[in-house]
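### Sample
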Amino acid sequence: MMRAGKFVLIVGLVVLTAACQRFSGNRNYAAPLPATPTTPVGTGTLDPLDPNAPPPGTTLTDPNAAPTDLASNPVAAPSDAKEVGRTDLLGGWKLSSSGDSCMAFMTLTTWSGGYRANTRGCATPALSGISAWDLNGNQVVLKDGSGAIVAQLYSSSPGQFNGQTSSGSAISLFR
């Protein structure tokens, strides 16, 4: 019985102390931040984030090459093309095409035309413009921000995808 009494006394003191600090007016809270002035939102077209980016819908890696319409003329699957699932593509990849080597990152965040992707360190506008990926059967499709197909690839071995860009160049995605 004595223990229960001590426990009730201690709990009562803690509650009383907390209540006194809370209502004493001597608060140790941070002062509120002043309101941030804002300007009205305007309308109009925005400049691209990358000043070297091609106009929307342009997916050429070679300025002298004629574009290939990969949407209506897809790259034929090689006979040794492997089945691929969405989780097989997640994470960081090395990307190589027409002498350009950079990194590609794939997520399962939904994005227009598939899932979110981005690249780092790509010199060519088409590769730096990759912003989405999707699967079409066992084919991996890389797309730009406007939804135009940049490249189509197939898995030839675990951790390796090979295919063709819209300009007809060979492209590889590997770990």
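The first strand starts at residue 91 and ends at 97. This sample (Protease inhibitor Inh/omp19 family protein) is used throughout the tutorial notebook.
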